[in-house]
Design a protein that fits this description.
538 residues, alpha/beta, Lysozyme, five-stranded parallel β-sheet, three-stranded antiparallel β-sheet, 41% helix, 8% strand
């Protein structure tokens, strides 16, 4: 991974006893030690070399402090354990703490790296490092800002940042900043025609992915019962096996990939295309609701050209947008007028607000009718099964669904006796972040956006913000539908809305910074998780 350092040959021959006699020699020693230690860590757990150098310079006064000379402690590592070998501050000889004594100076750097990688005090550092690792653009000053707890000095992070800047300007040949390096790499890698460069299709989606990643990491650090159950489900998910009546293992009749054209299902489809899955699907099926975002349709067109291992088929029931408007505004005197709203359309989970401020949510039927049923009809058609005829006994259709490990609560078994759900990403232990990382490492396929209907009530504010800023035509479309469904419910004063605030969508300014302090509050609503069929947003 180019984002932190390359492991040079010097790492293999590094001698922790080597010394230094100048500032330049000190820097080379710290660099060589850090490269050596980083070579033994997973890429994501490596600490940027320049950050280690800056802290070592600040903590040890260029390796000349008493603690560095007498205790080999370059990083200012304290201990409160009286049994540890330590040096007490000269001016506080009876202090309850001291500076640890290490056998070598490199050992103190090893202790420092272990501290950043494992102590709960540095969760924020690890989260920021993960985001930068995925985006492949290091911002050392951002990382330094997460280390305020390292020292009691309230100006500590500012001092480390200033040291970083001084080190950059004192080099004989000034190295470009890390952001500049990232831009230079991006310019050097000429994108393939039709491929959008970068980590996400725009900064707003980048922020969405960042929050999703933070949420995933937080759940791993402090899992609740639901998350523990999810982790157990992931661990238990394995490749399914099929047997005939004699107990002999057999292959499924068909393998079908349900394509949502989002991050995960597209990753699964392209991995199959690249030969990175154990099996290959016989067909890929995209169910078009008629109200997908413009970038989804663009991505589907790309996939139709990129996928050559099997046919990619588009199916549809009807246009959910037009069905929704028609159901909310039935023609007077028609038979539709006497039906309930749910009787007129397989309704999305719209928000219903009653006078007095109570807001509820309609049950959701749209995924089943606009996604699941059309795909299953196409499967039956491929099998050659006529309408209202049973599928032959012994037929097995393996349906691949692009759910990742962080969304394992969405896994549900198929209801049809001839249909077997399979989750290859979970079998490969891939999370959404891993899928994003795969796109970035491949540098071959475009990064897809978040797949779901334009006016899906499950949208979170960061998704509405993305649409309002970057896809104004789609946002105006959603606002128009929101306006037209207001009085769709029969025999009630309750009004219908697309947004959970139960106010007209066009009156909300999603560009305004939310007052909500909870980092994950606008990214994931746990109560929605079990409702999803696992086909819309993957």
């Amino acid at each position: 991974m180019s984002w932190i350092c390359s492991v040079l040959l010097i790492c293999l021959n590094f001698n922790p006893e080597m010394g230094y006699t100048s500032n330049e020699g000190f820097i080379e020693y710290v660099k060589a030690c850090t490269l050596h230690l980083n070579s033994m860590e997973d890429e994501v757990n490596r600490v940027p070399v320049d950050l280690v150098v800056a802290q070592a310079v600040h903590e040890s006064e260029w390796g000349r402090s008493r603690f560095a000379v007498e205790g080999n402690n370059l990083m200012g590592i304290r201990t409160f354990d009286s049994t540890d070998n330590q040096l007490k501050p000269i001016n506080i000889p009876n202090s309850s703490w001291g500076l640890r004594i290490f056998e070598t100076k490199c050992e103190s750097i090893s202790y420092y790296i272990d501290l950043l990688n494992n102590s709960h005090h540095y969760n924020e550092f690890r989260e920021e490092r993960m985001v930068q690792y995925i985006s492949d653009i290091v911002d050392l000053e951002k990382l330094a800002m997460t280390l305020a707890i390292y020292a009691e000095d309230i100006y500590y992070t500012q001092k480390i940042i200033q040291t970083l800047r001084d080190l950059m300007t004192t080099k004989s040949e000034q190295k470009p900043g890390y952001r500049a390096q990232g831009k230079k790499r991006a310019a050097a890698n000429k994108p393939i025609a039709g491929v959008k460069p970068g980590f996400a299709i725009n900064p707003e989606q980048m922020e969405y992915e960042r929050r999703k990643l933070m949420e995933e990491m937080s759940s791993k650090l402090k899992p609740n019962r639901r998350q523990l159950n999810t982790m157990a489900a992931v661990a238990a998910t394995k490749e399914p096996k099929y047997f005939d009546e004699e107990g002999k293992e057999k292959e499924p009749t068909l393998r079908i990939l349900s394509l949502g054209a989002g991050v995960q299902s597209s990753c699964l489809a392209l991995m199959a295309q690249e030969g990175l899955t154990k099996h290959k699907p016989d067909y890929m099926i995209f169910a078009d609701t008629g109200w997908e975002p413009s970038f989804v349709y663009e991505h589907v067109e790309y996939l139709k050209k990129a996928i050559t291992i099997c046919p990619l088929i588009t199916v549809e029931r009807s246009n959910i947008r037009e069905d929704l408007i028609r159901a909310a505004n039935p023609i007077k005197g028609s038979n539709e007028e006497w039906k309930s709203f749910a009787g007129r359309v397989p309704n999305p989970p719209l928000f219903a607000a009653r006078p007095g401020g109570k807001v509820g949510m309609l049950y959701r039927q749209c995924t089943h009718d606009y996604k699941v049923i059309p795909i299953q009809k196409k499967m039956r058609e491929i099998l050659g099964i006529k309408p209202r005829h049973r599928v032959k006994k012994g037929t097995i259709v393996e349906q691949w669904i692009g759910i990742s490990t962080d969304e394992a609560m969405r896994m549900k078994k198929a209801r049809m006796y001839w249909l077997e759900s399979r989750w290859p990403l979970i079998e490969m232990k891939m999370s959404r972040a891993d899928c994003l990382q795969w796109y970035r490492d491949m540098k071959k396929h475009p990064m897809p956006g978040k797949s779901s209907c334009i006016g899906c009530p499950y949208h979170h504010n960061d998704q509405w913000k993305n649409m309002q800023k970057n896809y104004p035509v789609d946002f105006e479309d959603a606002c128009e539908v929101d306006d037209k469904i207001r009085h769709g419910l029969k025999n009630t004063e309750a009004e219908l809305f697309l947004h959970k605030s139960a106010v007209p969508l066009r009156t909300i300014d999603f560009q305004e910074k939310p007052k909500q302090k909870d980092l994950f509050g606008e990214t994931f609503d746990p109560e929605f998780a079990d409702e999803c069929e696992g086909l819309c947003g993957v």
